[in-house]
Amino acid sequence: MVKKVMTDKILSFIEEGIVTTNEDFVIISFNPAFEKFFSVAFSKTKSKKEKIIEVVSFPKMNTAFEFAESGGVFSEESPVYFRGKRVECKVTVFKEGNVTNWIFEDITNFKILEDAKSDFVSAVSHEFMTPLSVVDGFLSIIRDPDIAKKLRDDYIDRSIVQLKRLEKLVDQLLSLSELEMKKYVPNFSTVNILQMLFEVKDEMAYRWKAKSVKVRIDSSKDFFIYTEGSALYRILANLLSNSIKYSHKNGEVTIKVMNEKGKVKISIEDNGIGIKEEEIPRIFERFYRASNSSETGAKGMGLGLALVKHLCEVIEAKMEVYSRYTLGSIFTIVLSQERR
After folding, report:
1. Which of 226, 257, 326, 334 is the most exposed place for a label (fewest CB within 10 A)?
2. Which strands make up the sheet holding 99-106, listed edge to edge?
3. 207: which DSSP letter?
4. What distance in Å separates the CA atoms of residue 78 and residue 90, rounded to the nearest whole number?
5. By C-alpha distance, which of 248, 240, 253, 193 is closest to 220?
6. How far is the C-alpha of 126 from the C-alpha of 328, rounded, in Å?
7. Across the chain, how many H-helices and E-strands are there?
8. Domains in the chain: ranges and CATH
9. What pLDDT score was predicted for residue 46?
10. Which of the four pLDDT bands, split at 50, 70 and 90, describes residue 2?
11. Of residues 245 and 164, more confidently modeled
12. Which residues on neighbouring strands pair with residue 57, listed in sequence order?
C-alpha cells in the first residue's frame, strides 16, 4: 500500500502524460498531467472501461504497440490527437509484464523554438548572402588589370557600403542578444540632446543624401538630460534611419524636441509610407517587417525597432507611435528629467 501511494505521489509531479493499458488496450491508470495538461476528460469509474484508442491517436500507434509487444521501446516525435486536440509530442511506448506504458511528452514549445531558430538562420543567411555576393562580384571585376581607375574606385566604394551593411547587421545581432540576456551595463551621465541630434543627423548623412530626403531639426535650444548616452544615441539613430528608409524620394523628416511637465519629448516625423494600424503593435518584434516595406525597396531584418524597445527599457523611456498609412509616421521618445 505504501508503495502504491508513493507511486501515485511521484506520478502526480511528473509533467509528462502517462497512461497504462492492459492487454485489451483498456486504460487502467493515468497520471493527473495526462488529463489536465492535454485537456482530456474520461471516466475514472469502473463502470466505463475506455480504451486508449478511443482517447488518443497518432500515425504510428499500431507500430508502437507491435514494437512494445516484441520487447522493444518505441520512441518518436509525432503529432498526437487527443479527442480532436493536436499536440506535438515525443511518444514513448514499452511493455512491463502484462501492461503497456504510454508516455506523452509535450514538445510544442520545443518545436516552436526549433522553427524560430530555423527561421533565424534562414533570415540571417539571406541577409549575409546578398552583400557578400555583391562584394565577391565587385572584387572579381576589380582584379581585372585593364579596368578603368574610375570604375575600380566606384566598385570599391560600393563594396565598402555592402561591408558596412554587414557590420551593422552583426552589431545589431550582438547588441540585441546582450540586451535580451540582461548583460548590458548602462553608464548614465548628463547629455546634451540637441548636440546628439546633430551628431546622429551627420552620421546618417549618406542615407538622407542618397534619397534626397531633407532632415530638419526643429529646435534651437540646448536640452540637457541625465541618461545613458550610448543607448539614447542608438535609439535616435535607429529611428532616424527608419524614417529615412521608409520615406519617399525627396521626402522630409522633422525632428522636434519639447519640454512638457518635467518630460523631454523627442519626436521624429516623416511623410513616408506609414504603417497600417493593425501592424503597429507588432513593429517592435524581432524580425518583423511591415507588409508595405517592399514599396520603398527597404532592406533589413527587422531588428532596429526591437533594439529600440530594449534600449528604451534601459533608460526608462516611453515610446509613442502614431502613424497614418500612406501618409507618414511619428515616433516619440518620452524621457524623464528626474535624475536617478
Report:
1. 326
2. 27-30, 17-21, 99-106, 85-96, 74-82, 56-57
3. H
4. 6
5. 193
6. 29
7. 10, 13
8. 2-106 (3.30.450.20), 109-183 (1.10.287.130), 185-340 (3.30.565.10)
9. 47
10. very low
11. 245
12. 81
Average pLDDT score over the chain: 82
List, as one string, the DSSP characters of 211-279: TT-EEEEE--S--EEEEEHHHHHHHHHHHHHHHHHTSPTT-EEEEEEEEETTEEEEEEEE-SS---GGG
Which has more pLDDT, 47 or 329? 329
pLDDT value for 339: 61
Distance in angstroms (rounded) separating the CA atoms of residues 217 and 196: 11
pTM surpassing 0.90? no
Beta bridge partners of 216: 254
In angstroms, the Cα distances linking 28 to 39, 69, 73, 197, 253 are 19, 18, 20, 71, 71
Q: What is the pLDDT of residue 131?
A: 77
Give 213's pLDDT tier (boundaries 50, 70, 90).
very high
Taking alpha carbons only, the member of 5, 316, 322 closest to residue 188 is 316
Judge whether 28 and 96 are in contact, CB under 8 Å: no
Q: What is the number of other CB atoms lying within 10 angstroms of the CB of residue 7?
A: 12
Measured CA to CA, the distance from residue 232 to residue 27 in angstroms comes to 61
Instruction: Using the structure block, give the residue that is written with the C-alpha cell 533589413.
Output: 300
- Which three cell numbers, joined as nine digits, stand for 96? 512491463
Which pLDDT score is estimated for 170? 77
Mean pLDDT of 157-172: 78
- Please state the rounded mean pLDDT for residues 225-247: 91
User: Other CB atoms closer than 10 Å to residue 207's CB: what's the count?
Assistant: 16
Q: Are 63 and 45 in contact (CB under 8 A)?
A: no
